[in-house]
Amino acid sequence: MAKMADPSETGVAKWLTCISRYDNEFKKWESRTTKIIKRYRDDTRSASGNQTAKFNILWSNVQTLIPAVYAKLPKADVSRRFGDNDQIGRVAALLIERAVDYEIEHYPDFRATMRHAVEDRFLGGRGVAWVRYEPHVRAQSLDLPEDGLQLTEDTDDTDDTESPKYDTEEVKDAYSEGGQDVTADPDEEIPEEIEYECAPTDYVHWKDFGHTVARTWEEVTAVWRWVYMNEDALIERFGEEKAATIPLDSSPEPLSGHGNATKDATQAKICELWDKTSGKVYWISKNCDTFIDERDDPLELEGFFPCASPLYATTTSDSLVPVPDFVLYQDQAQELDILSDRIDGLVKALRVRGVYDASQPALQRLLTEGDNNSLIPVDKWMAFSEKGGLKGSIDLLPLDVLSNALAQCYRAREDIKAQIYEITGISDIIRGQTAASETATAQQIKGQYAGLRLRSMQEEVALFATGLIRLKAQVICRHFQPQSILEYAAAQQLSEADQQMIPQALELLKSQPLRNFRIEIASDSLVQIDESQNKQDRLEFIAAFGGFLREALPAAQAAPEIAPILIEILKFGTGAFKQARQIEGTLDAALERMKQAEKQKAQQPPAPPPPDPEMIKAQAAQQAEQMKIQASQQSDQMKLQATMQIEQMKAQSAQQLEQMRLQAEAQTAQARAQMDAQIQQLQLQATVDVEQMKLEAAAVLEQQRQAFEMQSGLQDADRLEQYNRWRDELDASTKVLVARISASQRPAEQEATYI
């Protein structure tokens, strides 16, 4: 008798047990990741009110490494897996490459998902992304509104057994506007059409992803993600009947100190689980004993899972629980915080402190109120001086001990930072800091060895992006309509020869999706391009291409039978460049034309025998003599025309020079007359001003003399001498003023002389 299966090992209970086992396995990792993110955002200090100084080396390292491994959107490179002369395969690769590039560049989801996944990798040690298919459907009736009726944005609705139903009243209203009769059969299904399609890439939070417990990713048999849906989303996705059984008691859990302090329990937490063993997808709620929904493989992907292999930090072959990078240098980071807090305390302690004589209260003002270079009065100076002045009244706390300790702390902190950079692999070159004494060769060697781990990180990110793009490409090939692929790939911009092969290429993509193609993402395509190096590479390629053509063309002319071989060699050289994809098509077309020409040449009748060599020689001599006579005549005619043109140019030049000379003389005379008038006017004005000033000065002198005589009577000889001295100074200043006015006229006279 067969043993009955344990109810706990079947259905929802089985997967809830599997989820619970994962939660227990990754509980410590989730707790550790939460603490790391709080430290990254400095939440611990803001939440506790601790004002101790810290050095956030975690934030610095993450902000340095993220742009080093992912700085821009990747570019898909789709090529034929084998280098066969397959024109249809080449066009198919072009179509899928262009469609993927459109998906990546047009929709912002891929950019944000990659950024969040890379950030999760450097914080928690694992980044996850999810690919799905999302068709947007509208009613296919001419009498319906232009927007149609939105069915659902659910990406997995491929079950033919459950046909979509629309709201009866909505259908009646839509048809009534078009004058249609709906009384016959209100439940009749309305034909639909896809308005547009897309393959979004969803970011999966590190808390919302799970998989069966395994040692390596290849051993994983099921993956799942938790999604949060409100009531409207539940009804739209699962229907009103099933939605009514799912409680709205969940919401995304915010980190403490951020977001809502209390959970807004207005959403349902649904688990979307993909089981590779059975090839089914289940939708589960912890509050339901049965599956909310169950469907067979909806996307039909090669690896079944809709997610690429996660972007891991440090893992081993015995567990998929990642070790965050910060764990490897957390002790050094803690010591760095201690030193930073100690440095902050020493800096605050570096103040002038000491004692002073209480009998001299002014000394306190010297240290507390006195500004720079200030003098403060001190009472009883004699007593203050007898005590030795400041040296006898003030005793300051020595600061050299504190300054030495501060210097030691600074050196210790730099040592700890060096240890952290050694652990993380962040070299001086990556951080943009070099010593002035280092040579270029030393910096290059340092960068090569220090960049080994960085290149490894870049390759990991590139592999992660490649996995996501492969999933998007499979979704596009299997589920997108041919018209959508052509629109996204801008097929109308291809050459006429390539457009003729589009139907066969689409058929190849539908029948054998990506089996015959290679999709790659170069690691250097995710970082910022070195423009100078890119320019140099292009110039080197052009130079090498030109050199090959100079060597190959004479060889092909001398031996036409080797021309196909030369073209194949050229295709081999250009195949390494993505930008040369169009050139590859042109070379294939040229090769095909050469083969056709050779075939036609073989089918043509043999050529007539060559003519007599002596006759050819005589004809060549006669043609040479005729050409010699024609050349001599043309030379004489060209000489005569050149002589006439030279004489004409000489006459025109002489006339132009004479006109320019007359114009210059007239302008000079006019300028000289204007300058003379200005000089005379200035001289006259200066004379008037001088005379006026003399009169004013004499009047002032006379007034002051009279006032002086009235006040003192000029009885005192000293006062008379003082008056005479003042009068002489006034005369001297008047002469100086006259000299300045005269000097101001000289530049004008010089300018007139120059003109």
Helix/strand class: alpha+beta
Strands of the largest sheet, in order across it?
A: 6-7-8-9-10
Helix count from the secondary structure assignment:
24
The assembly state of the depicted protein chains is single chain
Low-confidence stretches: 1-8, 141-188, 751-755
How do the helices and strands line up, and which of them pair or pack?
Layout (H helix, E strand, L loop, with lengths): L10 H15 L1 H14 L2 H6 L8 H13 L7 E4 L6 H20 L2 H15 L2 E6 L2 E6 L28 H10 L14 E7 L2 E4 L4 E3 L10 E8 L1 H8 L1 H4 L24 E8 L4 E5 L8 E4 L14 E2 L1 E3 L2 E5 L1 H4 L1 H20 L4 E3 L5 H7 L12 H6 L3 H4 E3 L3 H25 L15 H40 L2 H8 L6 H5 L1 H10 L5 E4 L10 H28 L4 H12 L6 H23 L9 H100 L4 H38 L1
Antiparallel strand pairs: 1-16, 2-5, 2-11, 3-4, 6-7, 7-8, 8-9, 9-10, 12-13, 14-15
Helix pairs in contact: 4-6, 5-16, 5-17, 5-19, 11-15, 21-22, 23-24
Describe the structure.
- The chain has about 750 residues and is an alpha+beta fold.
- It is built from 24 helices and 16 strands.
- The chain has helices at about 10-25, 25-40, 45-50, 55-70, 85-105, 110-125, 170-175, 230-240, 240-245, 325-330, 330-350, 360-370, 380-385, 390-395, 400-425, 440-480, 480-490, 495-500, 500-510, 530-560, 565-575, 580-605, 615-710, 715-755; strands spanning about 75-80, 125-130, 135-140, 190-200, 200-205, 210, 220-230, 270-275, 280-285, 295, 310, 315, 320-325, 355, 395, 515-520.
- A hairpin with a 2-residue loop joins strand 12 (about 315) and strand 13.
- Helix 5 crosses helix 17, helix 5 (about 85-105) packs across helix 19 (about 500-510) and helix 21 (about 565-575) runs antiparallel to helix 22.
- The termini are far apart.
